[in-house]
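INTERNAL AUDIT FORM
Audit reference: QA-55
Scope: verify that the stored structure record matches its stored sequence.
Auditor: D.O.
Record contents follow.
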Amino acid sequence: MNEVGERSFNDMMGKYTSSVPFSKKESLDLNTYVTNRLRWSLLHGGQEEKKIRTDPAARVTDLLKNVFGK
C-alpha cells in the first residue's frame, strides 16, 4: 500500500477507535494486521499441506487432485 493509502487507513481507524465507546482497544494498524496474518498463514499453511499430502479426502478441488494424485 502506498503512503497516502496507509495514512488514510490509519486516520480512519483512529476515528473509529475514538468514537466507539467501551470498545476493546485492538491494534488496528494495517502493517500489524498484515504481519500477523502472514505469520498465521505460514504457521498453519504447513499443517494444511501435510493434511492434503497424507489424506486423499482433503484433496477437494480438481487442481489438488491433479497435483497430489487421485
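Auditor finding: record pair retrieved intact. The helical segments are 3-19, 30-54, 62-68.
Action required: none
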